[in-house]
Amino acid sequence: MDSLGVLYDLSEICPSPRPFQASAPPNTPQLGTGDIQVTLRWATTDDLDLAVTDPDGENVTYFNRAISSGGQLDVDANAGCAEQNSTPIENIFWPPSQAPQGNYTVTVSLYSRCQGSGSIPFTLTLLVQGTTQTFTGTLDESNPVATFPFSLPLQP
Length: 156
Description:
The chain has no helices and nine strands. By secondary structure, it is mainly beta. The chain has a five-stranded antiparallel β-sheet with strand order 4-5-1-7-8, with no helix packed on it. Strands 3-2-6-9 form a four-stranded antiparallel β-sheet, with no helix packed on it. The radius of gyration is 20 Å and the shape is globular.
């Protein structure tokens, strides 16, 4: 109803009750989330690896997918170049009320080159207790590792 009290029927141009609901692209994995969620995205079939070191020094990584503080790697893409996903995602998270307070370090590394050469741009999304931060970077053979420290609770 508009300001003059006229009711318009929009069913012909918006036949669905939720016409603007976005859907995830096919084959998008469900990502775990909680107090902390760290998500790595890149756009090559190369094998990048995501790891997070918790305040006690334990590492969540592809060879240690769950640690005692609750951290879990639930999505690992292009592992060993066996999989050839051109829109890969990796994800590490701590379920609600499980992440210990303290200092963390996120590490993104070039594990294996599966195609071509040149730098590999990536995006790292960090969700900490509802606050999202996004970082970008590039990796290549001369710069194969990038680190991103953060704290829980977040420091300004």
